[in-house]
């Protein structure tokens, strides 16, 4: 039996994925997480074979969760299922150790097959996305610049971003300026948009 934890912040999608996988005779959904930190906690306590995760979630993205699991040398393999078909997301996911990457509009039977393949130690990347990612420009942002931009796009001030990341407002301003320069943007809003459009946030 393949033991799976699902991480997804949209309750209806989370329920649908769990119900769908519950129909498979060899797959058991042992936990459900509404955000990234909860996913990490469930993987640590339940030690599933596969973590099925979205990318965009509160607290921590699915890619960040995968990176943390890799640092902890967790045996749980990560399969991303997302609406984001951007090459930047895929490249970052692979760098973080993700074993599979599927779009949410993939056929239902493909999801179960992907879980089986990933659980067995294989990899499954959507071939069209893989081809696109191979020719995509590299992500120019550092992790800190990415974190600052992600909060800036929510409309937070430098002081608020600094409080959230334990940085001074001046340091936040420097990170935003560096990110904007790298992206050829004139301000933080444009920088956030460019980064998101490329899958770098």
TrEMBL record:
SUPFAM superfamilies: C-terminal effector domain of the bipartite response regulators, CheY-like
Domain HTH luxR-type: 134-199
4-aspartylphosphate carried by residues: 54
Pfam families xref list: GerE (PF00196), Response_reg (PF00072)
Top-level taxon of origin: Bacteria
CDD domains: LuxR_C_like (cd06170), REC_DesR-like (cd19930)
Entry keyword set: DNA-binding, Phosphoprotein
Protein name stated in the entry: Response regulator transcription factor
Organism: Sphingomonas rustica
């Amino acid at each position: 039996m393949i033991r799976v934890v699902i991480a997804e912040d949209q309750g209806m999608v989370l329920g649908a994925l769990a119900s769908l996988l519950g129909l498979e005779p060899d797959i058991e959904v042992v936990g459900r997480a509404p955000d990234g930190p909860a996913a990490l906690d469930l993987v640590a306590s339940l030690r599933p074979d596969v973590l099925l995760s979205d990318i965009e979630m509160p607290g921590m993205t699915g890619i960040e969760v995968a990176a943390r699991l890799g640092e902890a040398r967790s045996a749980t393999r990560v399969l991303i299922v997302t609406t984001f078909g951007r090459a930047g997301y895929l490249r970052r996911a692979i760098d973080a150790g993700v074993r599979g990457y599927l779009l949410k509009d993939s056929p239902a039977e493909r999801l179960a097959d992907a879980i089986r393949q990933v659980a067995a130690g294989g990899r499954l990347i959507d071939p069209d996305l893989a081809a696109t990612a191979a020719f995509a420009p590299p992500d120019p942002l550092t992790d800190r610049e990415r974190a600052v931009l992600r909060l800036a796009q929510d409309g937070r001030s430098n002081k608020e971003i600094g409080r959230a990341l334990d940085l001074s407002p001046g340091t936040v301003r420097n990170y935003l300026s560096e990110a904007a320069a790298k992206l050829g943007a004139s301000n933080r809003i444009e920088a956030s948009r460019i980064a998101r459009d490329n899958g770098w946030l």
